[in-house]
Write a structure and sequence with these properties.
Blueprint: H1 2-16, H2 24-34, H3 36-63, H4 65-69, E1 74-75, E2 78-79, H5 88-96, H6 99-165, E3 166-170, H7 171-189, E4 192-196, H8 210-216, H9 229-259, E5 266-271, H10 281-289, E6 295-299, E7 318-322, H11 332-353, E8 357-361, E9 367-373, E10 385-390, E11 404-408, H12 411-430
Helix pairs in contact: 1-6, 2-3, 2-6, 3-6, 7-9, 8-9
Length: 451
């Protein structure tokens, strides 16, 4: 970098040095060399004519005054001057010349010449300044390119170090695989398994959202446009089956840790499935998901009829729920709310029956966490692992909310996430001392749920 900085200093000195001013006649000579014909026709010839005319006028006026002032005229077709200077026409021309006009012509020629030379000098100065500015910009651009290359090298190094610690994931397939790795880490190393989630079902809403189903099937959402209801049902069932497999892996890990007599615990923090005074945490969460922007539809799992075309509704706002052959089919959104709530409440009961510690909280979570956390004061080396999920299907603004997550084994990141988990757990315990009330069975007004 030092040679480059040195060249930049030299450029700055050349820009600030005073310019040598070119002489008037030097510039005029360059103009005559570049444009000889224009200089001849527009300066030399007019100058010569004016000079000769002024010389003749001056001579006749001051050296032959009597003859010049004599009034001559044409009589009988002849010029009355018997001694004309040249010819009657030339005599008439010389007599009618105006000295002031001739002098003005000289002045005009020289003014025009001066303006021409001055303009040329300004143009040359401007060209030099432009050239110097171009050189300066070129030098600065070179420095910027070098700096950008250096920054890119640094960014590549930093990105490589970050990617060693954090693995980004998108979509249900990658996310479920990451969760499975965390659960397996807890099982194989005897770590605590900590779960922070809005739903007690793993990715509980994903199997009902069209863009997640398409992503899981490696399709674009618009590729489901001509799919039959039967085809869509198979893809939604594949996503639901994968979610269920991860849930079964979690339950298996909880049972395994109990069976081997490990002190490790599986702890689950999720939204409350009961009424807490005037609030209902899970229904409040669903009210954010099923807002005025979304549309919930039913489909028949065995039908070969194509899915309904909804060109005006974005795919991320379309939720599809299997028809139940009941009165709830007339209100698909209420039916989906009831289905999700029943799944949520049943999953909580199942986990509690299996000895999983479930803490219920009364506020919607911005993220979901799955953490394999080593036990404190446990001998040996146990590595931690964590999945942090962003988005989680929440779309309260009506815009697309991607399911994005990252998997990491960095101990500093996991320590922060673990502290966040226990903060939510402690907050949940403080908010669950009120008297529980029964859940209302009327879900017909679920469409109007708000945050």
């Amino acid at each position: 970098m030092k040679p480059t900085l040195h060249s930049q200093d030299e450029t700055d000195v050349s820009l600030t040095a005073p310019e040598t001013d070119e002489g008037f006649f030097a510039v005029l000579l360059d103009i005559t060399k570049k444009h000889p014909l224009l200089f001849t026709f527009f300066f030399l010839i007019p100058f010569a004519i004016l000079f000769v005319s002024l010389g003749l006028k001056w001579f006749y006026l001051f050296y032959d005054t009597t003859h010049y002032l004599t009034d001559f005229r044409m009589e009988n077709g002849r010029w009355t001057d018997t001694h004309p200077f040249f010819s009657p026409g030339m005599d008439k021309y010389i007599r009618e010349l105006d000295i002031a006009g001739l002098v003005g012509g000289f002045v005009g020629i020289f003014i025009g010449l001066y303006l021409t030379v001055t303009t040329e000098k300004l143009n040359r100065l401007k060209d030099r300044l432009n050239q110097q500015e171009m050189e300066r910009i070129k030098t600065q651009t070179g420095l910027l390119v070098q700096a950008t290359q250096s920054l890119n090298t640094i960014m590549i190094d930093v990105s490589g170090k970050v990617n060693e610690k954090v693995q980004l994931m998108e979509g249900t397939r990658e996310t479920l695989n990451g969760i499975s790795q965390v659960i397996e880490s807890a099982k194989s190393q005897g770590n605590n398994l900590l779960v922070l989630s809005n739903t007690a079902r793993i990715e509980g809403i994903s199997p009902y959202r069209m863009d997640y189903v398409a992503k899981h099937a490696d399709l674009k959402p618009h590729e489901l446009r001509n799919a039959t209801q039967f085809d869509y049902a198979r893809k939604a069932e594949a996503l639901l089956r994968d979610c269920t497999d991860v849930e079964a892996q979690l339950i298996e890990t909880a049972l395994y840790l109990q069976k081997i007599g490990s002190d490790a615990q599986v702890e689950f923090v999720t939204l409350n499935d009961q009424n807490e005074g005037a609030n209902h945490a899970f229904l409040k969460y669903l009210g954010k998901v099923f807002n005025e922007h979304v549309q919930v539809e039913t489909y028949r799992t065995g039908s070969n009829v194509p899915l309904s075309a909804q060109e005006t509704v974005p795919h991320h706002n379309r939720f599809m729920v299997p028809a139940q052959q009941s009165a709830d089919d007339t209100d698909p959104q209420a039916m989906l709310v009831r289905l999700l709530y029943d799944q949520h409440a049943k999953a909580i009961l199942d986990m509690q029956d299996l000895g999983v510690r479930v803490t219920k909280i009364n506020r919607t979570l911005p993220i979901q966490l799955f953490i394999s956390s080593p036990q404190e004061n446990k001998p040996g080396l146990a590595r931690s692992k964590c999945v942090c999920i962003l988005g989680s299907g929440l779309s309260s603004s009506g815009r697309s909310s991607k399911l994005t997550a990252f998997l990491t084994d960095d101990p500093h990141i996991i320590a922060s996430m673990t502290e966040l988990f226990y903060d939510y757990k402690a907050d949940g315990k403080l908010l669950t001392h009120e008297i529980m009330q029964a859940l209302p069975t009327d879900f017909s007004k679920a469409r109007t749920l708000k945050k």
